[in-house]
Amino acid sequence: MGIGKWALPYGLLFIKSYLRKKNIDAFIFDREFNQDLNNLKRSFIEFNPEVVGISAMTLQASDAKKLIKLIREWKNNTIIVVGGIHFTAKPNDGLEYGADYVITGEGEIVLHKFMNEGPPIDKKIIQGEIISNLDDIPMLRMDDIRPFISSVEEYNKQSFHIITARGCPYNCNFCLSREQRPRGLRYHSIDYIVNFINKIVSEFKINTFFITDDIFVIKPSRVKEFCEKIKILNSNNLHFSCFSHAGHGNTELYKEMLSAGFYKIKMGVEHGNDEILAIMGKNTTKVKIEKTCEQIYKSGINLHLLYVLGNIKETNETISDTVNFAIHLHKKYKASSFFSYLQPLPGAPVYKIAKRYGEYLPKKRTYESTYLSYVPFDVSVKHIIKERRRGMILGNYNGPFKSYELIKFFAFLRYKTKNIWWLKRIFLFLLHHIALKLDNLSRVLKHAFIITV
Ligand code: B12
Ligand code: SF4
Asked: The pTM is what?
């Protein structure tokens, strides 16, 4: 059972594909696509599994707890194994919630051993094993993917996620730690990926893809090979976006990517103050970031930059530094900006020390990065919220006269006239109705809208 709207439950699909190669049958039920517990019960009874595996990020851990209880009610002697990001970070949670076993890290190899040889008798928490050659996992079958393709139109708007590698050489303090994700990048071969894309295109007519690897451009020779091979397919007019990281790639590579259909590159800038960047473990500086932004901008690919506000040791001034840097990068390189609040998540290095440097707000934690739940001691709640709003509006505003820029124009005016209540009402009214009409609203716009309310 897994989670993930707009994205396939890849972790589970890869496990299923690997188990099939070993002649073990698995059924996936994704709660993000199908919330109905009656459906789940029906599927459970029909499939009548000996072993149920449950996957969860921290956001979904409480749902996992609920499911364990339900499965016990439906069939008490089912063996329940939990895995995934949350239980890798906090394996004891799994046992406390009532699971029989916890598998940490990558699941394919260990789950196969578990199914083949039976559960171990001497331990409840089982360490996952790394797959060194990712192509050992057979390519996902279109039949396995079909249940998650609810609307091709939506996928083409939102992008169909694909994964071509695992791992990241960095260790940012708000992201998965090295303990969780053993170092060393592993890649699928480009042929494996291009074949997969080709199948998705011909089977589902999907043409817009988001490569969700932590940093796709990390190995230029591989990116070039991808571009060359994808161009051969590109009669179908395929579009791609992906992540880059400051200091990787160059203008020539980005131009090559543009010609292969890359229309957007996302980059975690995270901060506009070098000291905080160092504390975050970003291993970069503002100068390096700006250089990479310039290279991407010169290539003609759109830039979408991501920031995190409220890291440990921040002050009101450093929060403003980030927003000012974002506005600068927006003006100079036409980059759009998205601001998250720091969410100290289990599995991230900052999780263990967050309380030393700040406090959690006294409300239920959602773990969603757009909700403020943690504030460093030297930052005021009012300031961080106000600055995020400033960044979301001024870091995305391009003037009123381009396509749906009109809506951003209203947000901008609303921001500038925020103390005049009747103007505020009019703007909110117009904003709301325009937002309802424009169903092609980008995520950034939606957030610009939400925070304006
Ligand atoms: C793509 C992605 C998304 C996508 C899709 C998520 C999805 N369906 O998987 C989208 C954009 C939707 C997304 C959203 C969010 N994400 Co996200 N996402 C990722 C990313 C970059 C890749 C996930 C992935 O596909 N990995 C590849 C597969 C192969 O690995 P895997 O899923 O971990 O599965 C393997 C193992 O974990 C294990 N396993 C998994 N399940 C099970 C189950 C069993 C029984 C067993 C035995 C083993 C097992 O075996 C699998 C195969 O080896 C990760 C970072 C990362 N590098 O993992 C962050 C990450 C998972 N996301 C994260 C977060 C915080 C979020 C959001 C909360 C962000 C937000 N909006 O505020 C939302 C939550 C959305 C939701 N509805 O719950 C965090 C989670 C941290 C935590 N402690 O929970 C991560 C780790 C990034 C980070 N900050 O470090 N995300
Ligand atoms: S934030 Fe990005 S660069 Fe940093 S560790 Fe996570 S995936 Fe790697």
From this structure: 0.89
